[in-house]
Amino acid sequence: MSPLNIIIIGATxxxxxxxxRIWAAKGASLHLIGxxxxxxxxxxxxxxxxxxxxVACASMDVLDRESHEAVLLKAWDELGRVDVLLFAxxxxxxxxxxxxxxxxxxxxxxxxxxASAELLLHAANLFEKQRSGVVVIIGSVAGDRGRRGNFIYGxxxxxxxxxxxxxxxxxxxxxxHVLLIKPGxxxxxxxxxxxxxxxxxxxxxAGKLIVTxxxxxxxxxxxxxxxxxxxxxxxxxxxxxxxxxxx
Length: 247
Prior knowledge:
The strands form 2 sheets. Strands 3-2-1-4-5-6-9 form a 7-stranded parallel beta sheet, sandwiched between helices. The protein has a two-stranded parallel sheet with strand order 7-8. The model has no long low-confidence stretch (mean pLDDT about 95). Helix 1 runs parallel beside helix 2 and helix 5 runs parallel beside helix 6. It has 9 helices and 9 strands.
């Protein structure tokens, strides 16, 4: 099998970078997209050392809707064919601050769902013309049920899951697969302020599981797998009990 051509949006994400290192070791060509170009270049240098076929970087803010199509078209042009697009952009908002200032809530919902969906639609149109490929979207177990401490983030991820489900149906006829990854707690820069316990997974393990999930062709994958059962239990808790729980 020939090495993959891969676009990673939100490539400075610790999970995405971990997956990129594994793909690089397999000789993949990677096009990294993110807001911090200097950080992307640092990651790119490491990927080249690890054996990547070629690595290019592009700066883009997901909220800059006018840049979406042009940045994706350039990536497609440079790679020639795109086998995998990993969408890992996102923000973990401060729930209390969002509740106090609803404009922050709006911004978080836009980053994690609204603008992200628009960008993914541009990618979907290109994959549909190509008639092959895999779209990988990083969701979250937070989207399974609204919890007191993160229901704004969870609402965006719930919307992204429904979006991914519909996109999967739309692109199936074109031979394009849509994979939704739903991580639980992962030890990354985004969760650095959280108290880390036994349920946390390292970014390195998460990256390995993402690569495995892409190769296996699943539809929705919890990361690690046991989060599926944790969330199944949480979703079955009666509402009158759930309101009293501090989770």
